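Dear U.,

For the methods section draft, I wanted the exact inputs and outputs in one place so we can describe them consistently. I've listed the two proteins in the order they'll appear in the manuscript figures. Please don't edit the token lines directly; just add comments below if something needs changing.

First protein:
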Amino acid sequence: MPILVSLICPVYKVAHYIPELMQSLFEGINTDKVEIIFVDDCCPENSITLVEQFIAEHQQALKFKPSIIKQPINQGQAAARNKALAVAQGQYIGFIDSDDAIAPHYWKTLEPYVERVKNDIIEFGFTEFTTVLPDVNDTVISELPSSNLNPFHTGFFVWTRLYKKEIVKNLIFPEGMIYEDIFYNIHAFAKSKNSIRLSSCLVYYRKRAESTTSGRTSSYSNLLLNLVNSVNSTINCFERKDSVVSQVVRYSLLVSMKGFTIKERQDRRVFFRECKKINSNFTPLLNKFNHSLSVYFKFKCSKVICLMGGFS
């Protein structure tokens, strides 16, 4: 049986959440058409042991093909995902974070679209939770308007999409920084010719205080850095270039404003200095493709905020 989907799951310091993750995979995607690649990012506790135990205990009933890659040292989520991408066999590539879970109807919903192999990217929804898994009953599927501008409107999470392997075969995550999903999605959608967006909620996203994106520091500038770098290198792939630069300006303003929530003063100043440099690198692209005075005004506001923030 050919592998239709490779689902990639980095694992690091999430032992408390592994049982719910594994049970959701067992219930939501237990088919021999799927492989799940777990990457042990040198866990200092028993997270990966719990994964191995679940696989062993359910060996007779488990239909999906599990595999475990062990990193020699902790290298972060991006490096873990890249390691799995190098060996993934599926026609489509998907992702799930090890502290989240999938819906019971995950595969039932996606299978017809995967088997059709028509769409470069298949997008779906998610819902947030903190402790108790949601009880979502949305098995009625609606196909929503879709374009390669989707990530700017529906978010940059890679775990809300399946990507046809042939369009992302040479695409990897930038390592050593956070918000790497932005880079991956903009490049993937730039290559996409035919995407589809489904109304179904198929991922349960756990909000927890200690996650890598919950406490803002100067590294929050990585969001804008990945966004600007990605758009700079892919802009010619987009038909509506003015819409793309407009979205970058929107994010530039939002990110700059949120910089004032960084608590430590010196770190906050570092953030604003970084954003100022990133905005400068984006300016030539804005001048080339933007035709809107309101967009120019928003960008000017972002630059002023960065200037003021550098002295805050």
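Second protein (the one for the lower panel):
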Amino acid sequence: MHPRQTHEFAQRRGLRAKTDKLDATTIARVLLSGEARRGYVPTDLIATYRELVRLHSQLADEAARYKNEIQALLSVVFPEFSQVFTDPCRATAVALLKIYPSAQALAEAGVETIAAKLHELAPRNYGHKTAQKLVSLAQQSVSSGLARSARSISLKILCDQLEHTQANLLQLESEIDKLLDTDKGAKGLQSVPEFGHKTVAVLRAELGDVLRFQRTDQVVAYAGLDLEVKESGKWKGQTKLSKRGSGRLRRILYMAAVRCIRLKDSAFGAYYHRLVARGMKGREAMIAVMRKMLIVAYRLLRTEELYDPAKVGAVLVAQPPVVEPPVPHLPSSTKLVAVGT
């Protein structure tokens, strides 16, 4: 059983305490009530997807945090560094900062030493001119040098952590690509141009066996993209997304939707712009695109067909009702008279 079932059942009973004994009693009562719904146990393939994808998401968040901390620390120890390296977290910049983690360290090293190191790290991109500019900026840096030793150690550690995390991400991405290459069930998702490898892997991992969903609205609710309506009598509350389902699904669908609305040849992008042209707000249209992507993914996984962009904006045309000839209504007082020939 899903823990949410027992939690809501305990709330209905008005339990104030939570102990092992009460939890066991609640689980027994749920089973006896007949309201229990069987939980989903993923197959080995889906469990492998989930392990790789969820760890990848965790490490990607950590890498983003390390980058933010490096940039924040760099603005103190060497704020002019970004004048040379627009992205201070690229591989060459990080490798250089591990060796010279402050403006003072770069200035003390000298042009020739920095030029030799840059030539070793990226011979095609950086050379003597870059080293001269770095050393010149370091000598004129506005950095105060306060807590230089401690901040230098912090910057070295953060750069080292970022390198290790990025290396692990590359390893995970390689494993995910191998898994996708051998997974026949993912071929339909891979035929969608708007879905990258990470998007396909997350959809495969989080949706699992789609045959357990009988209708598309069940899939939409599973992703938390269904609407939560609150009203009573004349009072009507705010209608919003329930967000009770998989947050990972919503996140990857949002990122895919943001990308597709900027593409000229995207069927999902065209669908978004049609909705906006009809007067729908941008945020509502974005959610509609996310739902559309989810339903398309569900259909492709269920039918194992390839993607057809023409079906994204397809509208079911209602057939005109068959009009039968009217039957004349005779009042009760009317008498039928047989006319002889």
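Candidate sentences for the figure legend, describing the second protein: Strands lie at 227-228, 231-232, 235-236, 240-241. The longest strand covers residues 227-228.

Thanks,
Y.
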